[in-house]
Give the backbone structure.
Amino acid sequence: MTNTTTATAHLTDSRNQDAFNTMKKCVTLFGVVSAIVLATVTAMAFTGHETTSFMWIRGAILLAVAPVIHRMAVHASRGSIRAFDRVRTLSTITPIAIIGVDLIPGLCPAWYAVMQGLSALALIGVAFITRSAALSAAFAEKTS
């Protein structure tokens, strides 16, 4: 068996496919929470409550990023090492950025920071999954 065939065999292993399915569910959860955040901002604006451009822009960007990450996760589950590396990187950097920005005093209301933090938790799950020994080994063999 060649290295590519071996890596493909490891990627189609049921445990790895379960990991990819969980990863895709976590990304979907990230998207759902991001949509809820943006819907809440919209509802607040329509009911006369104060909203900021930061809340609108960030909510829209995070909602837009969710399908992109999901698509990369799908490609990774099919064996794309580039997609796997991108999901691994985004799922590590994005939660740090979300939480770090939320800690800036006065930038956003507490409820907004909490909801964004919840969406970050879903991506933290993806970061852990992409660093599992089995997935890392399967993609390491693919590059050999």
In short: Residues 6 and 17 are 15 Å apart (CA to CA). The mean pLDDT is 89.
